[in-house]
Write a structure and sequence with these properties.
By secondary structure, the chain is mostly beta strands. The chain contains 1 helix and 10 strands, in the order βββββββαβββ. The strands form 2 sheets. Strands 2, 5, 6, 7, 9 and 10 form a 6-stranded antiparallel beta sheet that branches. Strands 1-3-4-8 form a 4-stranded antiparallel beta sheet, with no helix packed on it. Strand 9 and strand 10 (139-149) form a beta hairpin.
């Protein structure tokens, strides 16, 4: 296992990177914990940005696994703003990745996910969590993100 390494380090609160409205935006991220991970996330983009209430956004993640990943591994997403939480979304990692499974250790992969923004999302910051599980439920990676949202 490798120690977590992030291209966009963050101290304290998560910050959003500036982007023009409606364009894809790179989003900063931080590890969910200090434990080792088998995935190095290189970039995370959301389109359109900022997301609006009731819209579906595309989340594109680029990174590398230090281990081979087998079919049945999953990516999970969940976002919360105030008391509202969007339903957890689960994706088959091998179905949404740029390479076929099993994923070879050290391969750079791109995953593309669609996530619906809650229709009651307001103006502000939504906190999110994106994590990867192997077929046995072992966590391979986890990152926290903060995303600016709009209600109109």
């Amino acid at each position: 296992m490798f120690r977590r390494r992030f291209v966009l380090p963050i101290a304290g609160l998560l910050k959003l990177m500036m982007a023009s409205p409606s364009s894809g935006a790179p989003v900063t991220f931080s590890p969910c914990s200090d434990s080792a991970t088998s995935y190095i996330l290189e970039s995370l983009n959301i389109t359109p940005y900022p997301p609006r209430a009731g819209e579906t956004v595309e989340i594109v993640a680029v990174g590398k696994f230090s281990i081979a990943v087998v079919d049945g591994s999953t990516i999970h997403t969940s976002f919360k703003q105030g008391p509202l939480t969007t339903p957890e979304k689960t994706y088959n990692l091998c179905s949404i990745s740029s390479v076929t499974c099993p994923l070879v250790a050290g391969s750079t992969i791109t995953t593309v996910m669609q996530h619906e923004v809650g229709r009651f999302a307001g103006d502000g910051i939504a906190s999110g969590r994106v994590w990867v599980l192997d077929p046995k439920g072992k966590e391979l990676a986890c990152v926290n993100v903060a995303v600016e949202t709009r209600n109109h």
